[in-house]
Design a protein that fits this description.
heterodimer; A: 122 residues; 7-stranded mixed sheet; 4-stranded antiparallel sheet; 11 strands; globular; B: 106 residues
Amino acid sequence: QVLLVQSGAEVKEPGSSVRVSCKASGGPFSSVSFGWVRQVPGRGPEWMGGIIPMLATANYGQNFQGRVTITADESTSTAYMDLRGLRSEDTAMYFCARADLSSATARYYDSWGQGTLVTVSS
Amino acid sequence: EIVLTQSPATVSLSPGERATLSCRASQSVGDYLAWYQQKPGQAPRLLIYDASNRTTGVPARFSGSGSGTDFTLTISSLEPEDFAVYYCQQRSHWYTFGQGTKLEIK
């Protein structure tokens, strides 16, 4: 049973940065793919980017290029998402999600964290 | 970026009725399309992958079809727990999600 546990809610000022963590347990870490998905209330999810820890290379959605960094620490089975230059429009729920590359569901996200609410306000 | 357009935005049905939700892609995604269910306060749940394959534990009343640019999620006979928001997602070129269809009780 895969479990993804995210860090707690954050309140940030405009222009600052936020780091959200996602600790994985119950399954392999390095050989899977982790993604970060943002969701503004009432709107569809938006893919921010993802990483395969074994490859240590991240890919980013075009709306987030240059502002987000996704990393993974194999020693602690934790993925991270750093978002810089925060603005009010970044207020949203941020989810980490996992795709088991060796399963039939392959690159689809079949395990999700509980979400982390990031509020950007002065 | 591949844009996914879902229709309708909201559909009102009664338990026992059939639901048909649509997702159209701005360019072909082959069969690299998934459907997720999301309930209030929860993360999305993967229901269907590669257009027509149910994930483990998803009831047989859920089915997916389509390829290329036009896809459909069908719920054959609605149960009370099926009322939620449904999103399609493509993985043909990175990932994008549709804006969702809210399935509400009539």
